[in-house]
Write a structure and sequence with these properties.
heterodimer, A: alpha+beta, Gyrase A, domain 2, Elongation Factor Tu (Ef-tu), domain 3, 2 domains, six-stranded mixed sheet, five-stranded antiparallel sheet, 7 helices, about 35% strand, B: alpha+beta, OB fold (Dihydrolipoamide Acetyltransferase, E2P), six-stranded antiparallel sheet, three-stranded antiparallel sheet
């Protein structure tokens, strides 16, 4: 167990590699109760969130959800999150554990008449169940991604969200804090493999989902990070003017995904020859090769560009890869 | 598959969790069960070249799991005669059999007196019990 944002979190159960492969081949469960839940309610809540979140909230109807960014005036990323529309005048934001306080303070400070922001993180437990057999194992029907509905697993009531952080189909089950242990036990009883933070990181990196604090921060912008698709630049959210300018002029650096061409494992903080540095890196359990992401000068971010990573003083060759690095065989 | 914890009596141990099996003027080196267990499943062994000179107490290789990197410290000084190809190609062998198929290098010992400075299995067990 390791401390993580004030929580004791399992890095692994059986091992990072078997857990990772279980999610790719079958189903795995992650206790992600450390993540934050913020309620934004009131008749003006849609208007408030549309002005603070990068994506177009008008496209999200009842029972739907959206990946979006909470941006600052510099176009930087306060947090990346999923917003769920519960009903008219009620949104639920699931935020990163490490940014729970920052995201809450950011929203609370900007409350307007007709809105109320509330941190309800301690009232919820959250279990992600991911993998090609996850729905079958839990006895759930398929549903479109980025939707949600109430449901249950063996009598434990939960908000069943068709979202995740692994690139696999699956659900995230949000339940009352007191029901968390029962929900976890119920999920495992269906033969789902328990998985820790280690596998969560390798799974998300294979599909190039950014990790806030590593790949995206308050000082990096969405365009450079390749998250322009989450920015409705025609709407007027915080920092949109900066992002429009970055997009028009072209970013100086870009977050590139890369695959090692020799035996070496990139790690966050390693330098990249010609400028830039690794923001995430690991050994890919699916591909059995070192993979990573990092900011490089825009001219060196094109797919197939050769990169040289400084692996503890040793130059190691890598090649820029298309995102996602790992693609499911169909 | 992970091996169960053991520290064979015929080996000499370095406090940085490396072992040496002295065979005449040669020695086989590897990492202990404790070291591989702390790291988790190994995915990379970046070893020395044949002919490299190892110096006791200094790093001569790196081993990596998905989450961590560790230096491998030489328990004895010597010249590398052979690097275990199985450790290079299938590093998880070190987890499964750290004292057998998961050996790392074979060296020609250059200072036979050094072996006496290493711990026996009982002393090494006492050492890790205090960590």
């Amino acid at each position: 167990m390791v401390p993580f944002a004030g929580w004791e979190m399992p890095v692994q159960y059986e091992g990072v590699i078997p857990e990772h492969l279980a999610v790719r081949a079958d189903a795995g469960a992650f206790d992600v109760s450390h993540m934050g839940q913020l309620h934004v309610e009131g008749p003006a809540s849609a208007e408030l969130l549309q002005s603070l979140l990068s994506n177009d909230l008008d496209r999200v109807g009842d029972g739907e959800a959206q990946y979006t960014l909470l941006t600052n005036e510099r176009g930087g990323i306060v947090d990346d999150l999923i917003v769920y529309r519960m009903r008219y005048g009620h949104y639920l934001l699931v935020v990163n554990a490490g940014n729970r306080d920052a995201a809450y303070a950011w929203l609370k400070d900007r409350e307007t008449r007709g809105t109320e922001v509330r941190d309800a993180s301690d009232e919820y437990a959250l279990v992600a169940v991911q993998g090609p057999r996850s729905l079958e194992r839990l006895g759930l029907d398929a549903a479109p991604p980025f939707t949600h509905a109430m449901g249950e697993v063996d009598g434990v009531e939960a908000m069943v969200c068709r979202t995740g952080y692994t690139g696999e189909i699956g659900v995230e089950l949000l339940c009352a804090d007191d029901d968390g242990a029962a929900l976890w036990d119920a999920v495992l009883a269906h033969g789902v493999a328990p998985c820790g933070l280690g596998a969560r990181d390798t799974l998300r990196l294979e599909v190039c989902y950014p990790l806030h604090g590593n790949d995206i921060t308050e000082d990096t912008d969405a365009i450079s990070a390749g998250l322009g698709w989450t920015c409705a630049l025609e709407t007027d959210f915080t920092g949109a003017d900066v992002l429009r300018r970055v997009k028009q002029e072209g970013p100086a650096s870009r977050l590139a995904a890369f695959v090692m061409e020799e035996k070496a494992i990139p790690r966050p903080g390693m330098g990249i020859e010609g400028g830039g540095n690794v923001t995430s890196g690991t050994q890919s359990p699916s591909l059995e090769v070192g993979i990573g992401m990092g900011y490089v000068p825009a001219a060196r971010a094109a797919v197939d560009t050769e990169l040289v990573i400084d692996v503890r003083g040793k130059p190691r060759h890598a090649r820029v890869a298309a995102k996602p690095i790992y693609r499911k065989e169909r | 598959m992970a091996a169960s914890e053991s520290y064979p009596d015929d080996l000499r141990y370095h406090p940085e969790h490396d072992w040496a099996r002295v065979e005449g003027d040669e020695a086989v080196l590897g990492i202990t069960w404790y070291a591989q267990d702390s790291l988790g499943e190994l995915v990379l062994f970046d070893g020395p070249e044949v002919g490299a000179m190892l110096k006791k107490d200094e790093s001569y290789a790196e081993v990596e799991s998905v989450k961590a990197v560790s230096d491998v410290v030489a328990p004895l000084s010597g010249e590398v005669l052979e690097v275990n190809p199985k450790a290079v190609d299938e590093p998880e062998t070190v987890n499964g059999d750290p004292y057998g198929g998961g050996w790392l290098v074979r060296i020609r010992v250059t200072d036979p007196g050094e072996a006496a400075q290493l711990m026996d299995a009982a002393a090494y067990r006492a050492h890790i019990a205090e960590l």
